[in-house]
Write a structure and sequence with these properties.
single chain; 209 residues; mainly alpha; Four Helix Bundle (Hemerythrin (Met), subunit A); 7 helices; 76% helix
Length: 209
């Protein structure tokens, strides 16, 4: 994630890992900016999306899965460089959210077209964006941002990564696309459930204000 603090910062276990602490400290010393790291996540998403759409080669699917994880690493490090590295900027909240929405959409729409169901990719991207909208809306009315749900960002990307790796094997065995179809369907359904549960939680919290 980007420049989040307190209740608006996504809880990520790997933030306390030695590799993340060391790498973020090195980036802060080297002159890297959190906003630049946020934008780099979109670059990785674009590379991954291109690999997914333009080739079905097993190695390409593995590389696309790696791109998903590199995008997540950027999402982790930008916030650490901003907060722990002392490089927070006033425009940080903008870079915190917008690149994430673009990266999600690039990956999910590409996966939909790659499996032959473009509409499923668009639906997954729409619902993924809606989960974020509900979260940010809660923060805009003074509530802690709600990162809960069965298909929050880390789980979406974990499912997509698993789908891409499974697709690399499926391509070798049968040439089908069931792995990506299933991944997209699970992401869409899970995102819908997450939207519903977050909205219910938001409504209850607002009533208690």
């Amino acid at each position: 994630m980007g420049e989040e603090e307190g209740a608006s910062r996504r809880p990520i276990a790997s933030r306390s890992s030695s590799w993340a602490i060391g790498l973020s400290a090195w980036l802060a010393r080297s002159g890297a900016t959190p906003n630049g790291i946020s934008l780099l996540s979109v670059v990785f998403a674009g590379i991954g999306a291109a690999l997914i759409v333009f080739t079905t080669h097993p190695i390409a699917m593995v590389c696309a899965a790696i791109s998903v994880q590199l995008r997540l690493v950027c999402n982790l490090l930008d916030g650490m460089v901003a907060i722990e590295g002392g490089k927070k900027t006033k425009s940080g909240p903008l870079y915190n959210e917008f690149p994430d929405r673009v990266a999600d959409s690039l990956f999910l729409i590409a996966a939909g077209y790659a499996c032959g169901f473009g509409w499923l990719g668009w639906l997954s991207a729409l619902l993924a964006a809606l989960t974020a909208y509900i979260r940010v809306f809660g923060g805009s009315v003074g509530l802690p941002q709600d990162f809960s749900g069965i298909m929050a960002k880390q789980r979406r990307m974990a499912m997509l990564t698993a789908g891409l790796l499974a697709q690399s094997v499926e391509t070798l065995i049968s040439g089908g696309h069931w792995s990506l179809i299933l991944a997209c369907a699970v992401i869409a359904a899970g995102s819908l459930v997450t939207c519903i549960t977050r909205t219910k939680t938001l409504a209850r919290s607002l009533e208690r204000l």
